[in-house]
Hints:
Blueprint: H1 2-9, H2 11-19, H3 25-36, H4 42-48, H5 55-69, H6 71-84, H7 95-98, H8 112-118, H9 120-127, H10 131-140, H11 146-152, H12 159-173, H13 175-190, H14 204-221, H15 235-238, E1 244-246, E2 275-280, H16 286-299, E3 308-313, H17 314-317, E4 323-324, H18 326-333, H19 341-350, E5 355-360, E6 382-383, H20 384-393, E7 401-407, H21 413-416, E8 419-425, H22 430-440, H23 444-455, H24 458-464, H25 467-475, H26 477-482, H27 491-506, H28 517-520, H29 522-537, E9 543-544, H30 545-550, H31 555-559, E10 563-565, E11 576-579, H32 582-595, H33 603-608, H34 610-616, H35 620-625, H36 632-639, H37 646-660, H38 666-669, H39 675-698, E12 710-712, H40 717-727, H41 730-738, E13 744-746, H42 754-764, E14 771-774, H43 781-788, E15 795-799, H44 807-817, E16 825-827, H45 838-847, E17 852-854, H46 862-873, E18 880-882, H47 889-900, E19 908-910, H48 918-930, E20 936-938, H49 946-957, E21 964-966, H50 974-983, E22 987-988
Parallel strand pairs: 2-7, 2-8, 3-5, 5-7, 12-13, 13-14, 14-15, 15-16, 16-17, 17-18, 18-19, 19-20, 20-21, 21-22
Antiparallel strand pairs: 1-8, 4-6, 9-11, 10-11
The structure holds adenosine-5'-diphosphate.
Amino acid sequence: MFVQELVLRQRTEILHALCSSGSAEHLEQVLDILLSQGELIWEDYQNIQVPGRTLYTNVRQLLDLVYTKGVDTCALFYAAVKQVLPEEQGAGLSLSECCSNLEEKEEHQSTSTQTLLTQRPSLVSKLQGCIDDALKALVLSGHFTSADCDEVRLPIHTPSQQARRLLDHVRSKGESAAKVLLQYIQQKQESGSLLNQEKWTPPKEVLKYQKKLSSSVSAQSCFLSTYGGTSHMSLDDIYTGGQLELAHNCENINAPLGLEDVVGAAGTVNEEADTVLVSGDAGGGKSTLLQRLHLLWARGTALQEFLLLFPFSCRRLNSEQREMSVQELLFQHCCWPDREQEEIFQFILDHPHLILLTFDGLDELKQSFSDEHRLCCPTQRAPVYILLFNLIQGSLMKGVRKVVTSRQEAVGPVLKKHLRKEVLLQGFSPSGIDCFVRKHHRDPTVAAKVLESLQTNTALLGLCHSPVLCWIVSQCHKELLGCGEGSPKTITDVYLMILQHFFQHQSSLKSTVGSSWLQEHLNTVLHLGQLAFEGIGTSCYVFSGTDLETCGVTEKDICMGFLIQSKDMSSTHSKRFEFLHLIMQCFFAALYIVLSNNTDRSTIPKLFELQNTRETGLRSSTCFGACLPSTDQHEQALKGEATSAETPNLQITATFVSGLLSQRHRSLWLHCCPSAVLEKRVRQVVRCLSKGLQKHFKSIPQPVAGEKKSMHAMPGFVWLIKCIYEMQESRIAKDAMSKLEVDHLKLTYCNIGPVECTALAYVLQHLRNPVGLQLDNNSVGDVGVEQLLPCMHICNSLYLRNNNITDEGIRKLLAKGIQCDSFQKIALFNNKLTDACTQHFSHLLKTKRFISLRLGNNNITEEGAKQLAEGLKHNHSLEYLGLWGNKIKDAGAVALASALESSTTLVWLSLVGNGVGSVGACALANIIKNSTSLEQLWLTENCITRTGVECLIQALEHNTHMKSVWLINNDLSLEEVEELKQRESRLIF
Ligand code: ADP
């Protein structure tokens, strides 16, 4: 006990000894030692080292903590002070009598991150002379970005502080970063050159090659690649950051991901793998994102840890017929070294960490990914797709980082096995849309007008979440602003708008009086349509002159601007063409299906039966190909292996077919196609949609007795719903929904974004009875929430866990929800909510009957809890309240407890992981005392001590209906737990 008292008594002296020099170094050294001895945990450290606070306050905080931790910690504290202070400074303290011995902690720690802690004092001193080189090692291994380095190297810090920051940063990056750092230190020690080591530079030839490669990459990427029309748009002028997210939940990462995080260490799930996948919808900006990374690298402003970057387009690789080696692939498809090819290639093989390969559009490759054919030798020739698959899985060029883009639907489990991580590109946020439109229109008044028109058409705003549609809408702003009544709502509307725009702007034809714009350009539509249609059926996206000729595509058709000349780095091919964007190709294919006289009558049914083909394993291209008037070339293509990636293309095409055959557009086709043929095609589509949905409804299992009838959407359900939306005929939506009888509709992990929400709301609003709508783990976001409003009245419960929703989305959702009688439950676990949304919940709770409110894992603090409590005071219906993983602390718990004290409805309350202490627990005990309904109280992962538990026990003595109080992981010793357990069996520790 003596040493503990001494900490109190000598407080002034200790303060003086540690602070009088004015430097924080002594305090920090003491903290290093206490951390390494395990006397302080990380949270303690952070509580003491609060940035911006005075040194004296920090030391006082440490003294308080050391005192409360007890005799042993006090003894170790004295030992640390003794070690750190020069003798004369420690003279006034009774250091020798009371300090215990500092042990050298064991070298063999179970993890490298632990070693960083246990060896902290010596690591800090070892690192001081070589911070820059250590950072370089971390950058090269992909764990640190240049932003991380900047943070460590902040000039206001002393070298030892920089060393500590480096250690802390490395710890936060995880085990593999820690390993790299320890290895680096060990190597340096072994070579005896911790200080003053020489700078390494790559060989001259390699540097020359790098220059050539980067200027070629820069030239390739400085203009937006799929921008149509005559003027090129510079990527710098138009690039707008899209929303990036990790596909796997990653607890350590709260800040939004930046561009460099795509390649960096954030969110790595498989350290052994080299390939990062960027996935997203067609038109979601994947190619543009890669292009941006290429440009930044070539300019020397990002990804500088990579000396060489080789960009590939899978679309172009499709047309490589030769077998090649990796060396040939790199040099012939990207950049040819003028001299010393062998040396440069050897350098690449010897320095895998300095090389980055990117493959855009894996889903456009003719072959589906497989890891069956193994190849390890970089000089062995093989078909290009085999090289690609082996590069991705790392059997070729292990250690070289690869970034691959693909649509999400096309990524199978075999590929997932080989991924380092997956990053989802989620389109533009509302502010991204705003920013893009302003960049697109230099004239601010035009930009403001376009934005205003988007605000008044929420369906269109939802579509603009997709960058390609945002581009189209901006491109066609004159048409958009002039369209009043018939303003675009569906994707088909938007593409028709651009069709008209291109024809009217790029054609020199004078309009013939009385004929529609479409009629005038019907031949172009049919020629391009046939080219697109045949290409979609055979995974062909790059067309040769012969392909164009076969479909009758003329020079005049090309001039319209829908086809662009294909860029090919190897430039050995003759002129090749591709559509402005893959979706544009699908659109033309759909136009062809609707307008052509040459398609088979089974084309539409086959197109819509895709889901069956997936399930029966029948290749979609073969099925669809049978409808094509065959040409030698296409027959040949059909015989080749097809890829499951075609299904999404065919789905988009089918969606357009539905839209084009909508009643709203029928007048456009007048004089372009016999109306009897059109009518028949409409009937075919309607029948296919109805049959498709029936199939889904039939798959709903009968509910187990006592449970609700629930339907989990099968693949293709959302797509069918989108087709119905494109038709914009409420009769069809009503018909479809009249046959759906479920209580719960589960659409989790269905890749639902704002566009899908619009379609869902349009169709689901016709359900006859309210349902529970479960949309967990999608990317609904605030834009999507707004799109869902029209179907709120049929939702009795809404599950939106993990959907990137912010307070603004909630504000809009609840403003509508309050008016909907059946809406009584909501789950919003893991979104981006803060105290700014609780006033809306409070209002909801005051205003209407509401049963379940789950707001776990958001950012709600005591202020938010107080707001909620205001609402709860006036509420007489809430049964479930979940606030797991927020930060409401004691003050929040007290406020909630006083509001819920005499609740007669609350059955379940969770405040797990909220920093609630004994004060909060004692307040909550009042609910147990008084409430007649509460059955379960969850207080796991808090900091409740014995005092708090005593209050809970006392309260339970008066309560017989309470079933359990969960108290796992609170501030209780093992002995206390044992004893308290005996006293009250409903307490669970
Ligand atoms: P994906 O590769 O996912 O199919 P793209 O990158 O080809 O999509 O994007 C389609 C179009 O959308 C581009 O041509 C461009 O007009 C626009 N676009 C996409 N991403 C961005 C972005 N980040 N900034 C500006 N425009 C973009």
